[in-house]
Amino acid sequence: MSHHIFYVANTQADNLGDLVINTLLLKELSNRGSLNINVRGCSSNYRGMLDSVNSSKTEKSYPLYVLSMLFLSLKGEKVSFYLKPGHFYGNDGGAVKKTITLFCYILMKFSGVKISRLGASLGPYRPISGKIERFQSLFFKAYTAREYISISYAKKIGIKNLEYCPDMAFLLDKDKSPASHHEGPVIISFREKTLSDDTENLELAPTLIAAASHFKGKPMLAVSQVTSDAPHNQALADKIDSNVKHVIFDSLDDGSKIFDTYSKASYVLSNRLHVLLFAASKGAIPIPIIDKDKHIKITGIFDAANLGDLIFDVNSKDDIVKHLIFVEENRTIIEDKLELAFEQQKNKILNFFDK
């Protein structure tokens, strides 16, 4: 019996991280059946990235795409539908869209289509969205979250069939860290929304200035992996030192340039999950600089991978320089932990494809 796998690829066009993790998942899926990707609404560059995936492509509307699945399943074929990974807040579309989606899931379930969502974060939902999500979860074969904070939240709103599945970035091959990495540039990369609401958005600047002073002798580079982060990273770079260069990698990059940049870095300081994990995969040491209580996605994912001691909490009374000294003094141990984390988390993802 043939295995037909369906996937709607459209995602945030300005977020290179999302494009990469979707492509990683699709490459794994292409090894497990006949993969059909719906590229409706995808940018031309993203479509170019998807050309590297062994698959057929379509631009059908969502209802017609669902009908294609139902037709094959009712013929007795094995059919799977995988949803995109990422963070879901339950606010993607209005009541009409949610109703259509729920109706499609019901049809899929009772026609034999297996629905899965791997490597997601959930909530917080508004009350009505939480109830809809709880009902939708009943129709999934694999309904997962990538960190235990989301799992705890899901249980709180009544979702019972949730399982742990790591972030798709752990599917990346993990490079070993050569000795040359120890003297490579220090990368900073910060998202807009966790900065303050004032006009300059520079509340992290004192922490980063102290970090730059500690790392004197190493070049510092500001990197924007998401286009909307660029103004804030430029402002931070200017505040730290006028000599700090700023490089923007937008969705026109296929991922190769940014991974090449990360492969030369010694440390990466960021509050962007996929900046941290992408850089870690190339041998850099990731140091999340976050509000641990508010930025639960990174907190949960790093804790689940036994990497929580790398986090610097901006709301703690700890000294950033002492934290950096701790990381430097334990670099060999941390490198081993990162190797193990990528190996274990990748295996946990792959196990879901074999169920």
UniProtKB/TrEMBL annotation:
One of its GO terms (molecular function) is transferase activity. Pfam families: PS_pyruv_trans. The keyword Transferase applies. Residues 15-283 form the Polysaccharide pyruvyl transferase domain. It comes from the Bacteria. The keyword Transferase applies. InterPro entries: Polysacch_pyruvyl_Trfase (IPR007345). Keywords: Transferase. This is Polysaccharide pyruvyl transferase family protein.
